[in-house]
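User: Predict structure, ligand S-adenosyl-L-homocysteine.
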Amino acid sequence: MKDTSKHQGLRNQLANLLEQKGITDTNVLEAVRKVPRHLFLNSGFEDYAYQDKPFPIGAGQTISQPYTVAYQSQLLQVKKDDKVLEIGTGSGYQTAILHAMGAKVYSIERQLELFKATSLLLPKLGVRAKHLSFGDGYKGLPNFAPFDSIIVTAGAPIIPKPLMAQLKIGGRLIIPVGGENQVQIMTILIRKDETRFEKHEVGEFRFVPMLENKN
Ligand code: SAH
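Assistant: Predicted complex:
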């Protein structure tokens, strides 16, 4: 599959739609204009890649809806060279958006099939993630901590303590909290000091579940 001016036009339209839906961070909108989402989908979905919808990516998982990706990316308040940890690499689209926004991205995926496919795809598309890891996102990446921000892209029944511990003071954790088959509440935790976190809840979303110790 190739990237063409037709795709570029569709990306511009998608970015405009996200702006209408309330995304204001120009860094996020520029990244949506840049990253070829159709190359993150199976070729059968190419024609739909620039609709504001989630799609299956194999292993029972989905690439998140562009609005959700943009919304979470905006909540992260990414600054250039920020160290960002992503839980749930999936297709790699969110990874690519964060990379386009200037972040140094670390990402964890627990489905081997997706980890392998995405680890091959990202370099081909010029996306140089700092570190892609196969493992359990509940544990984070203690060897690479602390992070300026952490984004969880699967619905989490609880807020994992290790992720809180791996945030810098002043850092932000963006996590949809709620059980399997429920809506999740998008939650922002801002680390105030060693022990205190400020919590904000900013709307309902639906994600595939964040799984622990099972495949
Ligand atoms: N950011 C992805 C979203 C994929 S859906 C994208 O843009 O395509 C969520 C992903 O989280 C799935 O790939 C799923 O396998 C993964 N996941 C679920 N539980 C996980 C866990 N405990 N650790 C790491 N990844 C997990």
